[in-house]
Design brief:
By secondary structure, this protein is mainly alpha-helical. Helix content is 76%, strand content 0%. Helix 3 runs antiparallel to helix 4 and helix 13 packs antiparallel against helix 14. The longest helix is centred in the C-terminal third of the chain and has 37 residues. It is globular.
Length: 491
């Protein structure tokens, strides 16, 4: 779509405020979906079975979201924000409805993929629509609200999931999206009116998106199910993944308008930022997904207790990033990123000291605070660094690549952490029995000796999850050290 003058997209103030309010609610709906199921998943697994597929409920949503996010931007430029937003919101709500109706873990994963395809457009479309509607002088403040929504969602999500599990039932973790989404769609239909596109639709490289999805999906499948695959199957899956990713890279170099701006990876600062985004994204999803499994399955606490543990981490994330945002311009990026990575490493090491039995809340709080502060400051410094290190014409694509890297890290991290747990439980022969630990009724029916044995084996598998987190945190520290020494926010 050609450039549209500011006055062509101006709307009356009252109508603009309503559109912005709808987009903030939509952003909250999309943001909370990643965390709301974290405290509910142990209960969902206890009801549906399929513990070995646990991580796919997170990974497939993130994979679908990551693959479709770049496509929605092109679609919005071609067909307008309003119609694209309504389409992705409708798809997200259909997926949410189906997720609550799932009868097995396999069906839940399939429906989560549908939800993720729709969810991939909610945040970028909401951000774009706010930028279109808000007056230029108000845009920084509006984007600050968007950032704050993510922090609020990170705190409320785990507690909301615990509330639904303990009251209305786990399907409402997904069904709560439906009335919220319908309200935002109605407000967009009523109040958002766009000018017509003034040029031909932009090309959308669907073959590249398909190759990327096949490549990453094959690698994820190998990581999750490695314990149950023959070497021939592992080689076949990895071969498919490598060929698809090589095909994607070739396709990106050959087309005039690539799906991702891969040339930006050649810049040292952006390379360090995106590498850190991949590693920190993996750590975030690994701890978010499996810390509730520890508190509920190993320690025997409730979903509410799991939500509180995650809330401590996310409050630390939000508080640290908001506080550091005031002082970031005083220090070089490398120094801030290195300190944040050290805190993240210390938090990951602290999780290694968790032992079976009642949770030591002082130690758990220390681990959650250190990890949250490390992740929050790391995310802040690299987001600012990426946006400040490129010219205006590359800023949108550089930011999208950074966000895409984080989503890819979360998707691959869900697969890798899930594979570690699956391998540990399968080797011990208690894979199916482990789900009994997260259901209070089934747990209470276990003999004390059996309960102690299975909880110990689950603790061992989750200890390996925390060990993988330490390894990834070391990688994040290396990424921070690779930041150019002189890079800092322009004065």
């Amino acid at each position: 779509m050609g450039e549209i003058p500011e006055e062509a997209i101006a709307v009356p103030a009252q109508r603009g405020r309503l559109v912005i309010a709808a987009m903030l609610v939509s952003t909250f709906m999309a943001a909370v979906e990643v965390t709301v199921i974290s405290t509910a998943m142990p209960t969902i697994v206890a009801r549906l079975g399929g513990f070995s597929l646990f991580s796919w409920a997170f990974g497939v949503y993130l994979l679908a979201q990551a693959i479709t996010t770049p496509l929605y931007g092109r679609l919005a430029d071609s067909y307008g924000r309003r119609s694209v937003y309504l389409g992705c919101a409708a798809l997200f709500l259909v997926g949410s409805l189906l997720c609550g109706c799932a009868w097995s873990m396999g069906s839940l994963i399939a429906f989560r993929a549908i939800q993720g395809i729709g969810g991939g457009g909610l945040v970028p479309m909401a951000t774009t629509i706010i930028g279109d509607v808000a007056a230029p002088a108000d845009r920084p403040r509006m984007m600050g609200y968007v950032s704050g929504i993510w922090g609020i969602a990170a705190v409320i999500g785990p507690l909301l999931g615990a509330f639904f599990v303990g009251t209305l039932g786990w399907p409402f973790v997904f069904w709560v999206n439906i009335p919220i989404g319908l309200i935002t769609m109605a407000m967009v239909i009523r109040f958002l009116h766009e000018p017509r596109a003034v040029s031909r639709p932009a090309a959308i490289d669907l073959p590249a998106a398909l190759l990327l999805m096949i490549g990453i999906g094959a690698v994820m499948g190998t990581l999750v199910q490695l314990h149950g695959l023959s070497w021939r199957s592992v080689g076949l899956l990895l071969g498919i993944g490598v060929v698809a990713l090589l095909g994607f890279a070739w396709r990106e170099r050959a087309v005039r308008v690539p799906l991702l701006p891969l040339h930006l990876w050649r810049r040292p600062l952006i390379l360090a930022a995106n590498s850190s985004a991949i590693l920190c994204g993996a750590i975030l999803i690994g701890f978010t997904a499996f810390l509730p499994t520890w508190t509920q399955g190993v320690a025997g606490d409730s979903a509410l207790v799991s939500g509180i543990a995650l809330a401590v981490m996310t409050v630390s994330w939000t508080g640290a990033s908001m506080s550091m945002g005031r002082f970031l311009g005083r220090f070089p990026y490398r120094r801030v990123a290195t300190v944040a990575a050290i805190l993240l490493l210390l938090g990951s090491l602290a999780f290694l000291e968790l032992r079976p039995g009642p949770v030591d809340w002082r130690w758990m709080s220390v681990a959650c605070v250190l990890t949250g502060v490390g992740l929050g400051v790391t995310s802040l410094v690299f987001t600012v660094a990426v946006q400040s290190s490129v010219v205006w014409e590359d800023r949108g694509r550089a930011t999208a690549l950074f966000y895409f890297s984080r989503l890819m890290g979360q998707a691959l991290g869900a697969a890798a952490f899930g594979g570690v747990v699956n391998a540990g439980l399968s080797a011990a022969g208690v894979h199916d029995a482990a789900r009994d630990l997260v259901d209070p009724v089934l747990r209470g029916a276990l003999a004390p000796a059996t309960l102690e044995r299975i909880a110990g084996l689950l603790a061992g598998a989750l200890h390996n999850v925390f060990l993988l987190g330490v390894i990834l945190a070391l990688g994040a520290l290396v990424s921070a050290v690779l930041v150019p020494r002189a890079a800092r926010l322009p004065s």
